[in-house]
Design goal:
The chain is mostly helical. It folds into 2 domains: 2-135, no CATH class; 158-266, no CATH class. It has helices spanning 2-35, 47-53, 56-75, 85-110, 116-152, 163-166, 170-186, 193-219, 224-240, 247-266. Helix 3 (56-75) packs antiparallel against helix 4 (85-110), helix 7 runs antiparallel to helix 8 (193-219) and helix 9 (224-240) runs antiparallel to helix 10 (247-266). The longest helix has 37 residues, at 116-152. It is flat. The two termini are 45 Å apart.
Length: 275
């Protein structure tokens, strides 16, 4: 069984690496061409990496190696879902951290991001992809559980992902994501303290954490609430800021998710002690 798992992992890594080579070669050329103003419109070799190494052929070899390694790691993304419980969570977290580190390093070496904000944006996109994968997997588990409940004649305990239980908390999220930033922008002086400091570093983390905590204590884990907060704040980013403020969606998402998880653990009923 162990040899079969190793063989499956090697196959997944090879397939993922080859797909990454085919996909990232043209994509990397587009990204490098867009950021390399005045240079080649579609460079096959990253100008930034060529400048670091001092050799275009060496840069090409390293670039292809980075593509293959990144694809190999991504290719094993489905393997953690073969586990369950705590091992599933730990392996998924480890896989995400490794993938995020590779993506950040590759974006910096190849000059895809321009600065640390661009790197952070790419990592946030990766986190969103992970969240969608987990969401799809959770929906599959829920459908399987519902099928078993139906066969046994059991009543549904909660709505899917607690979406119905989440609805009463959306007005607060709207106020936090739309009303508060717009009001503070209207009161803003010549120095953008309210929208530049108060909103991203105080209002969003505190509001997301507090509302997620209350929701978690009362309704348990509601994974759609952090996602809804991040999506609701997205129009504010482009109306009041620009794309460089997209990290604020990530701040709000993580704060609401952490609060909701803590609230769910805090509100979990204790087992009664038997005499």
């Amino acid at each position: 069984m162990e040899s079969v798992d190793k063989k499956r992992m090697l196959v997944s890594m090879c397939v993922g690496g080859l797909i990454a080579l085919a996909a990232l070669l043209p994509l990397g050329g587009v990204l490098c061409g867009a950021l390399n103003r005045g240079g080649a419109p579609f460079p096959w070799v990253s100008p930034h990496l060529a400048g670091l190494t001092g050799s275009a052929p060496l840069a090409l070899v390293l670039q292809l190696a980075l593509y293959f390694v990144f694809g190999a790691v991504v290719g094993t993304a489905t393997l953690p879902f073969a586990q369950e419980g705590r091992e599933l969570a730990l392996r998924s977290l480890g896989h995400f951290l490794l993938t995020a580190a590779l993506l950040a390093g590759m974006a910096w070496l190849l000059g895809w991001a321009g600065d640390w904000k661009g790197v952070a944006f790419l990592v946030e996109l990766l986190a969103l992809c992970y969240a969608l994968i987990w969401l799809a997997r959770w929906m599959g588990w829920w459908a399987e559980a519902e099928a078993i409940r139906k066969k046994l004649g059991l009543r549904r305990a909660h709505s899917l992902f607690h979406w119905r239980e989440t609805l009463p908390y959306l007005p607060f999220a709207l106020g936090l994501c739309w009303v508060l930033p717009a009001l503070l922008r209207a009161l803003e002086g010549p120095v953008p303290v309210y929208t530049g400091v108060i909103v991203p570093f105080l209002a969003l983390p505190v509001g997301g954490l507090a509302s997620g905590l209350v929701l978690g204590r009362r309704q348990g884990l509601c994974p759609l609430y952090p996602l809804a907060c991040a999506l609701l704040y997205l129009p504010t980013v482009f109306l009041l800021y620009n794309y460089t403020a997209l990290y604020q969606c990530g701040v709000l998402f993580l704060a609401a998710l952490a609060g909701n998880a803590l609230g769910a653990l805090w509100g979990r009923p204790r087992k009664e002690e038997t005499p």
